[in-house]
Predict the 3D structure of the following.
Amino acid sequence: MARPEKSAPRKMQPAPHSLFPIGHEGGAQRLLLEAATKETIEVEVGLRICASCGKRWFLPKCSCGGHTVSRNGPTRQRIPLAEVLRTALDRTGESKPADIKAVQGMISRTKTPEPIEKGVLRAKHDVYVFKDGTTRFDMTNLPLTHFTPQEVGISVETARRLGYMRDRGGGPLEREDQTVELRPQDIVVARSCGEYLVRVAGFIDDLLERLYGLGRFYEAKAPEDLLGHLVVTLAPHTSGGVLARIVGFTDANACFAHPYLIAARRRNCDGDEDSVILLLDCLVNFSRAFLPDKRGGLMDAPLVLTTRIDPNEIDKEAHNLDVMPAYPTSLYEAAERFAHPREIEPQIDTVSKRIGSVLQYEGFAYTDETSDVALGPLASAYGEGSMAEKIDKQLELALRIRAVDPNDVVARIVVHHFLPDLIGNLKAFSSQQVRCTKCGEKYRRIPLRGKCLACGGNLTLTVHESSVKKYLEISKRISQQFEVSNYLRQRIDLIEDAITSLFTNDKTQDLKLDDFF
Ligand SMILES: [Zn+2]
Ligand SMILES: [Zn+2]
């Protein structure tokens, strides 16, 4: 079972438009307008002093227009939210703003909030902010070395404007079906990504114009307007972004990129998902001041940026890429003898043999032609149907393929997927937090009062019985249908016992302490 493809905006749970703290004042939805029905609210924010008028303030810019400097750590402050919002709506020209979702509190050491204008404009353009102030789109990686203008939805004229003057054979590019070599830092993104980035570009333009008093930069109405624009691409759990350029769009839910670009993000090219950020969004809205001050807090943030990829410095795995137009017969003969790959390696043209020469960037070839790189199914079947259906299909396949032992498949599915899930959820259930249904506050233990301490709302579980039991029945069924070890069957039985004892009420009503003596 593989993982399904992904192509979606990055959203935190719950997803905010603004990194501005409103505590519990905005209700469970964390609505800024609801919080601003109060003239002032009390939240924990960093104390800042205005360099021009000396006022104690909390935003980077003082109400007098001066710049503020951070003092001490964060403190609980009463802030004039309604007034700050009125000023922001005035400045942005948004008299009737959409629902702006903010955050309960800031997680960074200095607890410096974003200017509220950013939230107003993000909500207007329906884009969401990640914890570091950027707006991202996540996509599955697919390696690509060649394309035709037709495949990526661009005209010959556009391709030439982007620098693709010649086809792979060196002839002038004149037709949309001529194949060109993808430049290592050019990417072809999902059309849905292009559409989201158009909204992000609209947000950036409004921000430049109305908050910073500068000219608009993108002026994008359709994804095509973003062709040639730069983006920062970033792999999860890393902090090194790599610069790339959008040169086309695909109907696949993926981002086609050169193997060098994928490797430069410290990824092996096997379909992980990376994110794309408009360069200007990254430069204007990213700040370390938003990132949490704990271990791992700086991960998944573009702290450094690689502007030019040096193939010599990327993961050596990408150097194994073979770039011949056809394999020699000797390769197949060697395969027949089960020869060691090293024996045939000298006869194969790989990237490793080109490092340091001009041919490290171009003159790659491929062995098999295709009419369209995105010709396959656009959505994998993995995203459809229930787990039971998927398992049945997989086992049906296992029963048909002679080289596969279906009993072993069942044992692997149960041992590596279902049992860890059952054990993990069982543990999560008994050590879970409770959540307030009204304001969303979470508690590690149920408060003695039985109600939310912040607002008096009802408390509810965060892990439910159904998620604990999710894979129990199917584990039992397939381990009975197929030959698995008694040990494995007993493990499933023991977990079932544990689950039953947790969710079944023992009869204790009529027992008194005396009954035990
Ligand atoms: Zn001031
Ligand atoms: Zn509450």
